[in-house]
Every structure is written in structure tokens, then in C-alpha cells.
């Protein structure tokens, strides 16, 4: 992708290194304000790469796609494509948790940017995030390592990150061959989805390694993308962000050793400002758009919001799908209730089971798995002596739920309760609805 080297506008550039309030240590930008600023500036896409944290993703997507504000008023700026990323902490071994094995302490937790290219990548980032917090938390950081990354690299794009990355740290200490070795590992792992980040915020070390980054790019055929390590939206917010870092480290501005960024350049710059820095090599700016176009956002959004998302339910070996197992449980339950001798109850159960099958076949709404999960935790509560209610609302009108033991009490047909109400929700409200009550 090559553009006129003398011009660039915001529609031709994408910020691939962006922090929000979910970078709790040093991120000032509120997601709503960050996205609105990017939309107002006319960027086609925006990446969110918080430090070790993916908690802002859903809110980020919603803000990028919102057409109305919280008051119902139309947003005048066009929607923007969300790119889901995370600046992970990369250690030698994420399970090592002592100073002997990581003598360089927190500095040994090197940065790396990872992005979800598709739904598989989204799931892999979720897995990496979980393992980093559960198994790798040490020196105040949730960590991963190269071996773990290799097991979860499918569907991911990777950026070399900032001065705190393994590649750039080696360049700073004149270990070019080590940086090259790491680039080879990441290129084998991510293919065309691996890129070298180049950034400049006025820091001398950033400028010093830029020639080596271009050398790596040339020798290994790795694209370079200009990134802006933004932690706040406007330049005028630099001092406020400095206060935030003091709060995060329990120190004061008056302390000459307080942690802070050396310059007020860590804000969301427009394309023209980025061009003033990297205009001599404009392709590093245009490459951001080419990299963003590798992201299959519809695949991620359709899987996230296109239907019911449920955990897998472990079925008995003799069953191949949740519907057949639910059907067996409901028929067995009907016999225990003695309703199998009632034509009304038998026909009603057939209708309810048929509706579940239609909902799955036509809309991919997996109510069978959902009801099995509900039954599972109801059974757990009952077996542990935890008091549960008889059921409530729409769920109580179901013969099926009575048969599988989710509800109990009077016969719903005796009071002409409607099954149809139970399926009368959209998928989001359905998942939130708990069709049993606590006593």
C-alpha cells in the first residue's frame, strides 16, 4: 500500500498503541472520551493496548460502534473500527516467581503488543490474559513467556512495542544479534502479522535505536509501523497524567524522584503531527492502515454479539449433543412427576422441546446448553443444602423446567401459564434472566 508521500490525513493512519483508564498505573484516557476523540478526528480504526489488561474491550467496542449517545441523541461522527489488543508483559518464564531466576526484577517483564486478528485470536488473547494473571503474576505484573505465546499465537498480530520491549532493550544495549534472533522467533510465529514499532516522543534512546529498527526491517523483510504511545488524549493533559502516576506510586509531585514521563508528547496525535516526525519515511505511517486491514473485525463481533455465548457443558458419553440429553432428562422427569399419563403435559413438553430446536436451527440460540447449565447449578445448590426458590416469572410457566428440576411447586398448566413468555426475550436479556428465585 503506497500513497502520495507528500500528503497524509487521518483517514490514512491508525493508532496501534493506545492506553486507556484500564492501564490503571498510568493510563488517563477514559474510553468514551478516547473513542469520541478518534471518531471526531476521522481515524478509520483505533487499537486499544492496555498494560496487561483486556477489561476495557467490550466497552471499547460499544463506544466505537455507538450511533447514539447515552441520551439517545445521534452521534454526528462516523463509527470507527475497534482493534482489540493488549500490551503484555513478556518474561523468561511466566511461572518463575523468585529473584534468583529473575534477577533483573520488574525490568525483566518486557513489553509486547498483541492484537486479535479474528475470533480465534480473540480467544487466544483471552487465554493468555487469564494465564498471565492466574499463573504469571509477579513483580506487580501479569506475565506470559515465549513458550506460552507460541501455544496461543494463532489469529494474532504482534507489534514490538516500546523501549521496554525485549527487542528494543537489546538494541539499547547494543545486542543487535539478540534483537534479530527475537525478530526471527516472532516472524516465524506471526508471519506477516509481525511488525516493528517505531516511535519518538522526544526521548533520546528512542531516536538512537531507530536506525537499527530500519536495519532489522531491511534484513528480515519485516514491516515498520509508526506508533504513538498515547496515555492521554490532549497534550494539555500531561500534567494530570503525571499526578495519576504519583497516585499510583504513592508519592508526591514535590518528590524529585517521582515517576513521570519526561515529555508531554504521549497524547493522541493527528496524522499531520505524526507526519512531521516520520515524514522522511512516510511508508511507516501508511503501514498502520495496511496492518489494521488484516483485522477481521466482523468475525470477532459476530461471535461476541451474534448469539448466545455459553461455556461448554460436559455431556455423558452416550450423548452427542445437548438437545438429546435435555430431552432424555425431561422425559425421565415427566415420568417421576406422573405427567407422562397426561396428554396435555406430554403435548406441551413436545412443543417446548420443538421450540428449543427451532431456536437453535434458525438463530443458533443454544437454549439446550443454557438450561443444562442452569439445571447443573440448581442441582449443586440443592445437594449442598443451599435454599433455592420454586421458580419465578416466565420460567415457572415451563413444563420442561419442572421436568428437569429447575422449578418446583404447582402445575403450570393448572393455571394456564404460558411457555411462550420464556422465549420472548432477545438473547442478551435471556442470558441475564435467572428463572428461579432465592427463598
Describe this structure in words.
There is one protein chain. By secondary structure, the protein is an alpha/beta fold. Helix content is 42%, strand content 9%. α5 (166-172) runs antiparallel to α6 (176-190) and α12 runs antiparallel to α13 (343-363). The longest helix has 21 residues, at 343-363. It is elongated. The N and C termini lie far apart (64 Å).
Summed up:
The chain has 439 residues and is α/β, with parallel strands linked by helices.
Features:
439 residues; alpha/beta; TIM Barrel; 2 domains; 7-stranded mixed beta sheet; 16 helices; 42% helix; elongated; disordered C terminus
- Average pLDDT level: 91
User: How many β-strands, per DSSP?
Assistant: 7
The radius of gyration over CA amounts to 27 Å
**Annotated CATH topology of the largest domain:** TIM Barrel
Name the beta content range: 5-15%
For the terminal residues, how far apart are their CA atoms? 64 Å
What is the molecular shape? elongated
- Contiguous runs where pLDDT drops below 50 for at least 5 residues: 427-439
CATH structural class of the largest domain: Alpha Beta
